[in-house]
Structures are given as C-alpha cells and as structure tokens.
Write a structure and sequence with these properties.
The protein is of the alpha/beta class. It contains ten helices and twelve strands.
C-alpha cells in the first residue's frame, strides 16, 4: 500500500483500524449520494446521451471499495440504455484487494436504505439484481419489515449484474496510464482527501489531464470539493476541484450533476491545428 494514502478499510465512517501504516477508509453504499444528493438517474441519462453515437465506452471506477458504486452505475445504465453492451464491463479498481473480494465472488452487503433507493430509482424488485442469503426478516416476497440498526444484509449478486463489472487491484496514481484516452469515463469519487498532500492531488489531476483526450470525462464526488480536517492537519489547502481547474479541466454543465469534468474544446482545436501545420511542412 502506498504512503500517499491515509485512513482505513471498513463499511462505514466509524470503523477504524490502526496498524502503524498509512491506511484507507472505505465508505460505500448502493447509490451513495452524499450531501450533494448525487443524481444517479441524471448521470446515467447524461452518459447514454453523450455516447449515443459511440460504439464502445470505457468506464473506470477507482476506489470502488466493495463494488456498491460500479454496481449502482451498471443498474442505472441498464435502466436507461437499450445498448448496454458498449458500456460493460465497468472496470472497478481499489488499492485494497481484500475489500473487493466479496464482490468478486458475488457477495454484497446491503442496508435497508440501499434497498429503498434501488426501488425508488428503478421501480424494480430487489430480486432482479440480488438474491437473499441471510440477515433480514421478510414477509410477502421481498418486503423488508425490520433490520436492526447497523446490521447489513447479505445478498448474492445475480449473474445478469455480476457480469457487468470486473474488479482489479490498482492504484490510480500509477494505473492512470492504463486508462484508454478516448471515450472514457473515470469515476474517482470521494477519494482525493485520502491523498496525503496537495502535491499528490495536483499530480493526479495533471496526469488525468494529460492522459485523457476528446469525449472523455472525470467524475468527482461531493467530498472532493472540501479538505478533510486530517488533510488540513498535514498542510492540505487544495481541493480536488481546485486541482482539476489548475490542471486545465473545465466543469461540464450537466443538469443535476456538479462534479463532471472534461478538457475544454479549444484544447483539441489547437491540437488539430498544430497537427495540420506539422503535416504541411513535412
């Protein structure tokens, strides 16, 4: 594990494990929306519309934790697209192999609120995507009656959803080189505060800017617009938003979404002109 990161591995914000090494905290839920009320349907519809004329779209989800986020996106794309094959598989990556193991083997732990959001967003029964294993009481099919506070329910991920996501152990600080430059979507939400220093956040933003080309976007999370108190204690001043702007990205104007970033169009126009001129003088 790289010393660029801080915090721990666990299901929620209050699970800490200290082992005298820099660690990462994994906070994740199905359709996690945060304080900005992240709009999953708006994201799926935006992606489907943006890439309507693209044969293949490369989706990378870094800091994927137990798979809740990539599976959330897979479910929403399945709802809004008639051509889902071009979006799948989503490549989900995390620095901690162990936290991804349950999802890789087909297991996910969901809370009552996860199931409520699944129904609210899709109007579909939980059994379309997940099969009950244990951990909650039920009656009349899949209707949840009661879950003890803090308890998660164990589900098996159905094959129709499981095949939509592939998991790999990787660190975005090095793995950005494996992102395909064109027609790519990079989700790296709520992970930038886990980078220890401003220089690390700035390095990542520049590397993504230099790697990505036209028709590619980066999606951040609500907490990437803030500096966590522990990052501030280490002298942190730059948010991920500020790093993206300094690197040259611009924020996309997308209804319902605040943290979608891309290279400005004029960058590609300059590259085209430069390429054209260089060919003239060959």
């Amino acid at each position: 594990m790289t010393t660029r990161y801080h915090f721990v591995s666990g299901k929620d914000d209050f699970y800490y494990f200290y082992n005298y090494k820099p660690t990462i905290r994994h906070t994740t839920f199905l359709f996690r929306n945060g304080e900005d009320n992240f709009n999953w349907p708006a994201l799926a519809q935006y992606i489907v519309q943006k890439y309507r004329n693209t044969d293949k779209v490369n989706i990378y989800n870094y800091a994927c934790s137990d798979g809740s986020e990539p599976y959330s996106l897979a479910i929403m794309l399945s709802k809004y697209s008639d051509d889902t094959d071009k979006f799948f598989p989503i490549i989900a990556k995390d620095t901690v192999k162990e936290v991804m193991e349950p999802a890789k083997s087909g297991t996910i732990y969901l809370e009552e609120d996860d199931l409520k959001k699944l129904h609210d967003y899709t109007a579909e029964d939980v059994s379309k995507y997940f099969t009950q294993v244990k951990g909650y009481k039920k009656t009349n099919g899949n209707r949840i009656l009661h879950v003890d506070p803090g308890d998660a329910m164990q589900f098996q991920i159905n094959d129709n959803l499981k095949k939509c996501v592939e998991f790999e152990c990787a660190d975005i600080m090095n793995d950005y080189k494996n992102i395909k430059p064109d027609n790519s979507i990079v989700l790296c939400r709520n992970m930038w505060n886990y980078l220890n220093y401003d220089s690390d956040r700035m390095e990542l933003a520049k590397n993504l800017y230099n790697r990505l080309r036209k028709n590619s976007i980066v999606i951040l999370g609500y907490y990437d617009g803030t500096i966590h108190y522990e990052a501030r204690e280490r002298g942190g001043k730059l948010t991920a938003e500020e790093c993206m702007q300094r690197a040259g990205f611009k924020r996309c104007e997308v209804p319902g979404l605040q943290q979608v970033w891309e290279k400005p169009e004029q960058v590609f126009e300059k590259l085209k002109r430069k390429s054209f001129i260089s060919r003239l003088f060959k």
